[in-house]
Amino acid sequence: MESAKTSGKISRNRCGDSGVRPGMTFDNLGRFGVWRRYSGFTPEQARELEELGYGTLWLGTSPPDELPVVESLLDATESIAVATSIVNIWATDPKRIAESFHRIEARFPGRFLLGIGAGNPEVNSAYQKPYDALVEYLDALDAAGVPKERRALAALGPKVLKLAAERSAGALPYLVPTAHTASAREILGPEALLATEHKVVVDADLVRARQTARPRVGMYLDLRNYTANLRRFGFTDEDLAKPGSDRLVDAVVASGDVAAVVEKLTEHLRAGANHVALQVLNLDESGALKTLAPLLKAV
C-alpha cells in the first residue's frame, strides 16, 4: 500500500476518527495530540507516539524560521501530523516562514500545520497592536502562497477567534478551561478548527497532582493575555494570584487516575473542540502517554 509520505493522503488517527468537522481540508490531526516545547521530540519518540495512536505533535514555543525539527519528525514517521504552537510573529519573518512551509509541504504533503501567534507583551519588546500585526502577517503569508487552511492562530479573545475563523483553518487556545472551548466554538462557527491545549497529571492523589501542576500553571499568571482571558470565565484575583488556586489548577489541568484524566480531556470534545493537545506534566511523561493511549482510542 502506498505510504502517506508518497501519496500525500494521511490516514485517520488511531485514537479515533478525526475530530475535524466536515469541510476542513487539513483533516489528519486526530482527536488527541501531544504538546511539548520545540525540540522536545526525538524522531524515535515521534514514531512511538504515532504507534500509540496520537495524531499530532505540537511544537511549543517559537521555533527558528527554518523549522528544522519539523522535517526530521515527519521523515521518521508515516502519518502523524506536526504543528507549530506557535511561530511568534515578532520573532520570525513571514517570508522565510513561508519558504519553510513550502519546503516542508513539497516533501510531506498535507502533514504540517503552521500555527502562528502574537505571544505576550511581557516577553515581546516589539509587541504593539497585536491584532493589526496578525493581520499584516497573514497578508504576507497570503502573498507568499501559504494556504488559509494550512495555518491556524493562537487565539483566546473573541476578536482574534473571529480572525482565526476568517483567515485561517481555526484557533489554537492555550491554558483554557472547558467553558472557553464552548464559547470559542460559538464564535468560530461549526466549520473552523478548534485545537485546544490541556495540561495533564496522571496521579490519583489529587493533592500531589496539584503540587505537580501548580508551578506549570503559576508561570503564566504574570502574563495578562492569559489572566484577562481566565477572568472572562469567572476566575478571580484570588484564583489568579501566583501560584494559582486549587479551583484554577483543576480547571486547566486534567488530574487524577487515567479514567478521570480521559473524562476531563473528553469534556473539551463535547464542548466543541476538534482536537486536544496533551501537555503531560508527569516526570515520566512517556509512561503517562502510554497509559492514556488505550482509553483515548476508545473515546
Short description:
By secondary structure, this protein is an alpha/beta fold.
Describe the structure.
The structure is a single chain. By secondary structure, this protein is α/β, with parallel strands linked by helices. It has one domain (27-200, 258-297): Luciferase-like domain (TIM Barrel), CATH 3.20.20.30. 44% of the residues lie in helices and 16% in strands. It contains 13 helices and 10 strands. Helix 4 packs across helix 5.
The total count of helices amounts to 13
**CATH-defined architecture:** Alpha-Beta Barrel
Query: What order do the SSEs take from the amino end to the carboxyl end, as H and E?
Result: HEHEHEEHEHEHEHEHHHHEHEH
The figure for the number of domains is 1
- The percent range for strand residues is 15-25%
Topology (SSEs and partners):
Elements: H1 4-7, E1 32-37, H2 43-52, E2 56-60, H3 68-75, E3 81-85, E4 87-88, H4 94-107, E5 112-117, H5 130-143, E6 151-153, H6 158-167, E7 170-171, H7 178-188, E8 193-202, H8 206-218, H9 224-232, H10 237-240, H11 246-252, E9 253-256, H12 258-271, E10 275-280, H13 285-297
Parallel strand pairs: 1-2, 1-10, 2-3, 3-5, 4-5, 5-6, 7-8, 8-9, 8-10
Helix pairs in contact: 4-5, 8-11, 12-13
Features:
alpha/beta, TIM Barrel, ten-stranded parallel β-sheet, 16% strand, oxidoreductase activity, acting on paired donors, with incorporation or reduction of molecular oxygen
